[in-house]
Structures are given as C-alpha cells and as structure tokens.
Task: structure prediction
Amino acid sequence: SLADTDWIGLLEKARSLRENPNPGELRFDGRVALVTGAGNGIGRIYALLLAKLGASVVVNDLGGSHTGVGGAHAAADKVVDEIRAAGGKAVANYDSVEDGDKLVDTAIKAFGRIDIVVNNAGILRDKSFARMTDADWDLVHRVHVRGTYKVTKAAWPHMLKQKYGRIINTASAVGLYGNFGQANYSAAKAAMVAFSNTLALEGRKSNIIANTIAPNAGTRMTATVMPPEMVEALKPDYVAPLVAFLGHESCKETGSIFEVGSGWIAKVRWQRTGGVGFPINRPLLPEHIASRWAEITNFNDGRATHPISTQDSFAAVQANFDNKDTGA
Ligand code: NAD
Result:
C-alpha cells in the first residue's frame, strides 16, 4: 500500500540518479588530469571525456603543425572553451612537453594536485632512413621521449607524496613492429614501452600505475594517408574510453601494452621461444648455432613462454649455468 512505501528511500534514489544518471559510471570527481597535445586529435577527445566524467583537466598544446613547426594558443584554448561550455573544469597550457615542469605547475596552480598524466603529444618527421637527418631524428625524440620523460618526471614527486598516480604513455604499433620511413618515430615509440614498464615497477608501492597504449585513430596525423571512411571508422572516441579506464582509481592494471582503435582493444605481451642451451664447458661456435637455428626460432614446439619481468627473462639464462657436457 501507499502507506508502506519507503518514500524517503525512493526520494534518495531519485536524487542520486539525478546526480549520477549512470550508476556504475567511472567518475573522476576531485581528480586532476593533464593531457599533453590535447588541442587536436586523440588528446582533445581524452580531455573532453575526462572533463565530462568530472576531472579537472589541464589541456596542454603547443599548437604547432603535425611536423612540429610553429605554435599558437588557439588549439588548447578552443578545447578549454568547449569543456567549460559543457560545464566542465579546464585550464590551458601552451608549453612544449619538453618543459614538463611548466605543465605540471599549471595543474598545481589551477587545481592543487595532479592525479593522471596522459602523455599524448606527438609529431612525425617521416623519411626513409637513408634520407633522415639528425634534425629529423632529434626533434621526434625530443617531443616523444624527452617530452614524456620531462612531464612524468615533474608529476612523479606529487604522485609519490599522495601515493596515487595514473600514467598513460602513447606508443604506436610502429613502435612494436617497425614501419618503412619511420626509423626515428618507431624507435621513440618503442621507448615508451620500456619507460612505462619501469615506472610500473617503481610506482607499485605508491599506488602509481603506468601503462602504454598503441592507438589507431583518424586525426590530422593520419588523415593524409587515410581515406575519409577510414578516418570516420577510426574516430578517437573509440580510443578515449580505454585511456579513461586506465586513468581511473579502480584500475589496477600496470606495466601493460594495449593496441586500440575503431572500438577494438587488445593487450600485447612478449613471447619467447623455449630456446636452446648449449654446454658451457666447451667453446660455442657459430656453426653450433647454425645447426640448432630451427629450434632457437621455433615458437610451436610447446616450449614458448611469455616472460613478464627481467627476472623471469634471466631465469632461463641462469638455468644454463650448470649445462656441462659430460658425454664422451
Ligand atoms: P595530432 O597531430 O592530431 O595531435 C597531436 C597534438 O600534439 C597536436 O595538437 C600538437 O600541437 C601537439 N604537440 C606536438 N608537439 C608538442 C609539444 N612539443 N608540446 C605540446 N604539444 C605538442 O596527432 P594524434 O593522431 O592525435 O596523435 C596523438 C598521439 O598518438 C601521438 O603521440 C601520436 O604519435 C600517437 N599515435 C597516433 C596514431 C594515429 O593513428 N593517429 C597512431 C599511433 C600513435
């Protein structure tokens, strides 16, 4: 009957639904996120999503071209305006990621803390290796490797102190597999993987997690090489939710690599063959290796493993310490 109805309970429910219309939604209220290169492309969508979910966001962007030329405030300002117009909290920062401490300063000055760092800023200087100059190499490494390092280095002491941090670094499939014309970029992107994995180890005790993503997205960076249907199918909106998940307090995943794009997400790991241990009490000659090459490179003999740490990796090397040939 009406008299038995728990009106107060129902009102409570209605109120909480109004405040959070999507129960179970991963919220970021009270959290501060810094997204580098957030004036365009994938980074812009990260910033919009994190702000929509309640985070205060530092929208960093130098505002240059996709080859790293020039700079302008408009790129970051536009995204900040978009976030504010939707009722979110954001401030702009226009420094290069190479001045990482300035980006983190902006977060601390505006919002008093830094919880999430998404290292996303990036440029390309594609050229065949024969034609690549030192400048092409250095510029790409400065933005991706040194930039990611400098931003993270500045955020790290805050994260250690508050015993909380979420770091997402941006690699690329070409950093895992290589690509014609991208010796500089692919090497820089591979560095992201090892950097994240080491931070994952050093951050574990302090509830700092670090992961790497290899995104695929239709942006100005890829629009020049993709037909329009493909740009549409690869909307950054399909990448951003993974970054939000990896940036959330409920996420415990760390030291992992994810390939993501077009709404498809998968984790990547190393695989190693069972290997061949040669006796160490007699000389190891190149021809010994040649004669066992098929075994050394065989992933399908049931002995392949997936090492997940340097210790894990070393165990097989160490196991060969006692491999002595006692045969006649
Ligand atoms: P984008 O060019 O659309 O956006 C990158 C943004 O970074 C730009 O707004 C640019 O101004 C900014 N930026 C460049 N140098 C900067 C610096 N020194 N300091 C601050 N900001 C700087 O590119 P995108 O496609 O959105 O790429 C985002 C990230 O994802 C990059 O790291 C890129 O290498 C990586 N990635 C993209 C794809 C893809 O398919 N789009 C694939 C693999 C990896």
Observations:
- The first strand starts at residue 32 and ends at 35.
- The longest helix spans residues 134-162.
